[in-house]
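Morning run. Coffee first, then this:
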Amino acid sequence: MQAYRAPRWLAGSGAVAGNVQTIWPALYSRVHPERRIGPVSYVRERWDTPDADFIDLDFLPAEVNVDAPPGASPRPLLVMFHGLEGSSQSHYARAFALWAHAQGWDFVVPHFRGCSGEINRAPRAYHSGDHAELDWVLRRLRLRHPGPMLAVGVSLGGNALLRWAQEAGAQARSVVRAVVAVSSPIDLAAAGQAIARGFNRQVYTRMFLNSMKPKALAKLQQFPGLFDEAALRRAADLHAYDNAFTAPLHGFASTEDYWARCSAKPHLRAMREVPALVLNARNDPFVPADCLPGRSEVGPAVTLWQPAEGGHVGFPAGRFPGHVADLPQAVGRWLRQQL
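And here it is:
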């Protein structure tokens, strides 16, 4: 993936190609190289949280090998944290689910609060640095799963996963063997500025706000006076939305405070314990190339993959209409090396 190049019919390293390599795979490419596959059939579990709320986790257990010898090594578990307003049925989640299943690995997607199809109960939602929530989820999964555990976070989920590994420090290695962040906005201020401009503002910002604002207003019906309704309705970009909703609900003084405290990039240099792969295409429309870290800005446990092409969680491959299976295959090879 470090040397990734888009197929000729989607090729290009510039801004236009970055948008095409982002939008086309999400809407039209397959999650399998050879056949069309619809929604993945997961097994859902609901966990009650310590603050009297709930989260929904979608599991795809591996098929049991009845011919496995007694005492065979337990299966690995791949945990995926989805992106902003994503779910277990997002194109990248289904592609990783199919890859894990083909390897004989168990797979699970813990949904961030409010992203599983039902509004959550508590006066909170989720955010890019929600490392305490990830810590609770990962440690509970560790207690019930006998095999090695690995974690992948996509976009927002990847930044949150890195922040968890950074906060956990040496203890992270006792929970997971390795972590991967795919197309993650590790510099939240730079990403926030990028998505608020031009084409990004008209397309991506509108898409996210059209999903997030109704959820926020539903939360206000649950808890009248929780935040400034007028400010939320006026919000025309993620900076204003975070200032009206995300920051006050989660204990931040402002958007600037939230973005500064939750960005993973400033803490990458201190990562020396759990192996971490940070994958960002340099034409990602959400994450500007000039904000990506260099080798001198990360610790010895961090591997950087920064191909010129790929878009945001795109990385399409194959003949028209393409597929997104190369991403989990490349990331999966790296994860296998950590086992």
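The mean pLDDT is 95. Good start to the day.
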